[in-house]
Batch of 2 targets.
Target 1
Amino acid sequence: MTNRRGLALWFLLPSLLVLAGVVVYPFVFNLWISLTNWNMFHFQHPQFQGLEHYAKIARMIIEPFGRPLAEWPAALAANEFYRIFGKTFAWTAINLVFHFTLGLGAALLLNRKLPARGLYRALLILPWAMPQYISALTWRGMFNVEYGVINQLLSQIGVAPVPWFSSELWAFLAPTITNIWLGFPFVMVIALGGLQSIPQELYEAARIDGAGPVRRFFKITLPMLKPVLLPALVLGTIWTFNNLNVIWLVTDQGLPADKTHILVTYVYKAAFFYYRYGYAAAFSVFIFLVLALIVRGYDRAAKQEVY
Amino acid sequence: MKSRRTLRSRRRPRRSVFAPALLLALWTLLGGCSRTDRARSVVVWEQMDPKEQELFDEHIAQFRERHPEFAMFSIERVHYRVEDLQTQFQTAALAFGGPSLVYGPSDKIGPYSIMGLLMPIDELLPTTELARFQPETLPTLEGEVWGLPDQVGNHLTLVANLALVDSIPTDTDTWLRQLRETTIDRDGDGKPEQYGLVFNLLEPFWLVPWLGGFGGVVMDDQSRPTLNTPAMAQALVFLSDLKKSRVVPLECDYPLADTIFKEGRAAYIINGPWSWQGYRDAGLDIRLAPLPMVSSTGQWPAPLISAKCYSINRYLDPGTRECTAALLAWLTGPEVQLDLARKLGVQPGDLTAAAAPELLVDPLMMASREQIARGRLMPIVPEMRAVWDAMRPFYQSVMNGELEPAAAAAAMQAQADETIEVMHE
């Protein structure tokens, strides 16, 4: 038995080494950086400074609450951290809602017997198959106020041109639309796989019992898809929360006037524009903790039995 | 019992073969990541335009012909986008790796040198090499030269499409009248088919020349930002009025400006040397001219002037020193610089190349030199990053009509001061 366990460990060793190299080491290294004064002026010889960066982040978080209660709303709105934090949550939530509704809807359609179903499937997967970088830059061009195809289409139906990158709201919606387009095929593929594994007998039995399509969807389809959709939800949350490319490229680094940043673009800027590696590393740890909490919530939900 | 022993005896040799085989595989895998290849490879990371990349490859081929003694070295060019190059170089340096030479505008050299990522030029080449260049074009910080230029300028200039204009005004009042005349909305839909002017409205690099035209500068001699000035407010008013008068497209970014001009649908573009050859290739009859004098101040706009330089990685592999030194000298030598000037219209940094008679009489080069003479050297200190990032959002807010120019100037200053402070924490 011991020998068999030893052999199993030998088989696991390459994966463990790779994991240690690409996950454990960078994580520990990041933690260490977050405890140092590593920046442009201390690039070669960073010094340990304890939790100073974390204290700075904590001060930013509690700053609005040090004021009288009546001033909290204004203070929260003016606080850069809460503006970015709120935008990150809005960005993640809106994207996930659309990824899952559109993805699930497309999967339900493709799960039916349709003519040229393979073609539809290929077309719907296309956004996911395209490099994110190319898609983001293409969408940016499409959102141009004067020459973008979106405003030209809108003008055909009598809608005034939308100033996509001149207003904070529209500039937030532009990358959101792009990311919805990019992200829903992933959910569609996952859901389609799940749908095909649901035994048809369940639906037949439900029909015999008089259950309509809506009832069948909520009582059979959705619960049976839960085991595949929950991991997709966890992954989708992490990917969207940490999606640097789409926001960064579509809004050309935060158009208009740096108003479209989410946490991860804020960290990227701190690290690679202002060379504040220690601070950015501490902020990354903060993002990790937020995501860990969210994933923990999903994990609890996943443990609830379907039946 | 016997059968168990037999089984064990069979298992043992298998395990003893498996373990060394695994270790061998890992050793081979990790061996591929070792530094041995770096000793035979000279790598240049660049952020060149396609035309520059093409010429670079030609120059490398010529270097190979002239230096057979370095035949055993591979010479590799790796292209990055502007910000990617910075990110990648910093990341590679953390692992004591990266390219042999890094190429880009001199303003990046300040942060690199402070971070200790670069080797001073005189550690690789004799100091006599430095005498080949105009001293002010050499990126110098704390008494050390950190890069050698293959061109100087990188400056914005007015480029006219001679199919749409036959004269180029020298003052802004006349120029603005001409811009209004050359902006044509044929179908009256409020969206002109032809514009007087196109340029990147989003980036403050295009704001700075006008700041100079109103008597302002971005930094003082002590590298402190000087953004909250009447000159900045006036420059912002000037540019937002340009947008309001609709002689430029709304939300005009660089690709859009470039495309419209190449399509022959704009009388003027404000752009740099990297773009001029592309306009000729697009079949346009272009002429360069200095940006027109600001009529209200009598001062000329002052674009920022910088050099494009090759710098040496601090972690250059010792085995490639000689080849890298020879390559650096060749790429920044008079022959290559003259070729770049002829084919791209850029100004050489090498004094011998700059004095070539053919360049002295070339109209494009003359106009470019005229603009350079009115420009200001780009500060190479890292604090410039904070200045750019402070200008960008508030400049955009003014252009979107969300902020008054004077308030934007004050906000830029406050933001720049704050960012510089946190950069030094």
Note: The CA atoms of residues 42 and 231 of chain A lie 41 Å apart.
Target 2
Amino acid sequence: MKTLTVSVVTPDGPVLEDTYEMVSCKAENGELGILPGHIPLVAPLSISGVRLKRDSGEDKLAINGGFLEVRPDKVTILAQSAEKPQEIDVARAQAAKERAERRLQSKEDRIDRVRAELALRRAANRLNVAQR
Amino acid sequence: MASLRDIKKRIDSTGKMKKITKAMEMVSAAKMNKAEQNAKKFVPYSEKMQEVVASIAKHTDATHPMLQTREVKKTGYIAITADSGLAGAYNANILRNLKNTIEKNHTSSDEYTVIAIGRMAVDFCKKRNIPMAKSIIGLPDQPSFAFIKDIASETVQMYSDEEIDKLVIIYNHYVSAISQVVTTNQLLPIENMDSATGQGSQYEYEPGEEEILAVLLPQYAESLIYGSLLDAKASEHAARMTAMKSATDNASDLIDELSLSYNRARQAAITQEITEIVGGAAALE
């Protein structure tokens, strides 16, 4: 079976570099599945979980803001943060989620709202990835 | 000539000072190593980012405000300094450069604004009535991307909102442990993209080129700010280490000199005592 080299890079250093058979992620306008031999592609990613599949199993990462660059034999994910399920601090994400929900309910000015929504999405994404 | 006790006191206090500077030197050396590692860890991200942005900018005729030079009514300067002194010429170099640049390019204070990072820059701007758009104090020694994200994106936002038409960053570039160079870089609008080495591969864009640029360029600008900050942090610790090392060396020299005059004074006192005794004995005969 053909494989892809996947590397995930964040400003705080490389997170992961390994070979997989398929990458499945959520771009801004829908789910994307990448198999080896894909045409070169650039797509921004939404705050979501990325699934990396191979024979021996599946790895997940919680991605926050960034984009995906695809070459026929290599996929690079550049994200502002990327966490493996075991690295996620569930208690902290839970607290962040509740804080963001509280902020969204109390009606404040608009800029705060956008930030709270983003925070909520990040926290929910982390919890999602950690639990699965 | 100073008395024996005075010299002894000075030797003691210089010795204590030397201990402190020596400790600070070692702390800075450890921090510098860490900061250098952080800066290295960031390199793959920034290189990849640059590569993708360059290849998009090269192959596309899509436009984005960040790629276009517009008439400059107001310039934003990001000045990165430390929160404390005792780092040799580190802060002074940055602030002098900032002052000269402003004096050279602008006549009225409406034409520029400063985003001050570090207490030294904040105090400098306050004292001289330089307009400050934003300021941060208390940056950690190992800043994480999350910490700088807010200020970086707000600054980039100022450009998008046309509050500023040009963004320049002034920081100390880390060359080696003993050499840091003041660097002035234009961040926005993004120029010289063509000189960067793109891989030449033609990409498919999902959803479209303009949308990608809209997402990518702010992130690129933020990553440039973060990269400069990491570089500046490494320089800061290096500068502090060098400054403390020379302070320690000076203290050693001073102690040597003082010990010499202490011994000389002690010898003079003994000689004088003997002379007095001999003189006294001679007078009795």
Note: The first strand of chain B starts at residue 75 and ends at 80.
